[in-house]
Amino acid sequence: MKRALICGVSGQDGAYLAQLLLSKGYQVWGTSRDAQVSSFANLERLGIRQDVHVLSMAQSDFRSVLDTLTRSEPDEIYFLSGQTSVGLSFDQPAESIESITVGTLNLLEAVRFLNKKIRVYHASSSESFGDIKQGVGATELTPFRPRSPYGVAKASAHWLVANYREAYGLFCCNGILFNHESPLRPTRFVTRKIVSAACRIALGSPERLILGRLDISRDWGWAPEFVDAMWRMLTQDEPDDYIIATGSTHSLEEFVANVFRCLGLDHRDHVDSNAEFYRPTEILYSAANPEKANQILQWKASVSFEQMIENLVDAEKLTMSQGR
């Protein structure tokens, strides 16, 4: 039985990845900052909480990271933890950069110190690219030009992984995931904010949905199928970096319009754009070319933009009906 350690198991990707690995017969271990008080609500929601062994780990503390690896003895590590909000990184740049870069460094050093053949997946990010020229999707060779503290931190961590792979021979991969959504997204994420507000409005709430820029464009995918690509990276003969995305870009206004349309509403009657919600610097256009993953990993996104939004709306309606 293979043993996998998921750092950040309580998040959206961590929970879906745990579910996937359990279905493949893995023994799954997961970390959070304090496993004694964490609710692990996402694992509970997926019905797998009792199947995951949880440990406390402070990723900024090398000894804590080393102790976690020693106790869990993983064959594979999926490093998904650290600050995850682009917006929050503007308010807390030092914490964002430290939690992501130092945490990644500590993990890589711990794996090198143990001198075991542990395979490592690192959650890189499309935010590292910054703005992409319209009509040209980013590839694994596209230069990084991040436009947020979060993007800067992820770009730094990405190159740490690449350096440890080349300098020390570690089997470590960067998964450069573009935006991916699910019902497990926290409410601080704009996509969940939009879906939640639209569902309340459809039930009669008089509120208006206030957003920042509506002209930004992203490649949005369905998170439950993205985690399969993470696992596939660690099954390859050689470690490498891969872009994981749908290859299709849509504006935030398209996202909003589709959400309200699913509820029989016109978004223009309920949504306002306010400059107060603009970020200091913003990626206006993001696009991806996932051909490498399609060819080598045999992975391709199957859930369309429209179906993803229907899934999010249906899940939110169910959550509201159950009073969660």
UniProtKB/TrEMBL annotation:
UniProt EC number: 4.2.1.47
Essential cofactor(s): NADP(+)
CDD domains, A to Z: GDP_MD_SDR_e (cd05260)
Entries under InterPro entries matching the protein: GDP_Man_deHydtase, NAD(P)-bd_dom, NAD(P)-bd_dom_sf
Signal peptide bounds: none
Domain NAD(P)-binding: 5-311
Keywords: Lyase, NADP
Amino acids binding NADP(+): R213
Enzyme class: lyase
Catalytic activity as recorded in UniProt: GDP-alpha-D-mannose = GDP-4-dehydro-alpha-D-rhamnose + H2O
Pfam families: GDP_Man_Dehyd (PF16363)
Superkingdom to which the source organism belongs: Bacteria
Biological role: Catalyzes the conversion of GDP-D-mannose to GDP-4-dehydro-6-deoxy-D-mannose.
Family classification: Belongs to the NAD(P)-dependent epimerase/dehydratase family. GDP-mannose 4,6-dehydratase subfamily.
The name this protein goes by in its record: GDP-mannose 4,6-dehydratase
Gene: gmd
